[in-house]
Design brief:
By secondary structure, the chain is of the alpha/beta class. It has helices spanning 5-36, 51-56; strands at residues 41-44, 62-65, 81-83. It has two helices and three strands; from the N terminus they run H-E-H-E-E.
Length: 102
């Protein structure tokens, strides 16, 4: 059985293309997983147990804080957006509950 040089090169190039495509998919998948926590938008207490923990992560540019009581003194030394439980809700439509403060 004779194998031509052109055949080997074509098969090798096809193999490299498949490997490159697979590596690209893996890289994109890893980037997506990392963005879930510590991404531009972080959630307390889902992603971080405290508001300060989210503030301390430089990857969090927006922090959404769920309704609840957070006993902590938060120090913010950078620019970020901090949203409470009813952020974006008109004052006329906000829930009246003692644990929710806008």
């Amino acid at each position: 059985m004779k194998i031509r040089v052109g055949e080997v090169n074509t098969k090798f190039v096809a193999f490299l293309a498949i490997v490159a495509a697979f590596a690209t998919v893996l890289t994109i998948g890893v980037g997506t997983a990392q963005a879930a926590v510590g991404g531009p938008t972080c959630n307390v207490p889902t992603d971080y147990p405290t508001i300060q923990a989210a503030v301390n992560d430089p990857g969090c540019s927006t922090i959404n804080v769920a309704a609840g009581t957070y006993t902590e003194n938060v120090v913010i030394n950078r620019t970020l957006t901090l949203n409470g439980a009813q952020a974006g809700v008109s004052p006329a439509n906000q829930l009246s509950h003692p644990s929710i403060h806008s």
